[in-house]
Amino acid sequence: xxxxxxxxxxLDVHGRPGVEEALHELQxxxxxxxxxxxxxxxxxxxxxxVGDDDLDAAARLSRGWQDAAVAPLRDLRRxxxxxxxxxxxxxxxxxxxxxxxxxxxxxxxLLEMLEAASPPPGxxxxxxxxxLRRAAAIWGGSAPAALLERLxxxxxx
Length: 157
Prior knowledge:
- It is a single chain.
- The chain is mainly alpha-helical.
- It has one domain (6-155).
- Helix content is 70%, strand content 0%.
- The protein has seven helices and no strands.
- It has helices at residues 6-14, 19-28, 34-45, 52-79, 89-116, 128-139, 145-155.
- The longest helix is centred in the middle third of the chain and has 28 residues, at 52-79.
- It is elongated, with a radius of gyration of 16 Å.
């Protein structure tokens, strides 16, 4: 079990081979929240015990902040992939970089809110694949079991 704070845990796990790709597929193809899924992995790794009510509360918190801040910033950043014909390229890229930084700040704020709302660390043994399946079911939408298993395996949790 780990007593690592959520943000450093997320940075570590997100940087592992295969994790980013699995998360983005779950986000872009299946409508899941990257931050919520990473939180579910952290809950598991830190031995915290959460029930369906806890998962539901975290999903509502995640969905609210994602709708208010993360998704609009992500959409804006993605729309800025193609440089404007009227703005200098360096200015356009600078603007896109600032939006990307704001998006990351919004995601970090969400993770801080999720961490603050989490139960204390414990020594409960949990399976990362099962934790992701439970979190994905609470979130709703589709989440192929093989993709969740790939994420759990790649995360090393």
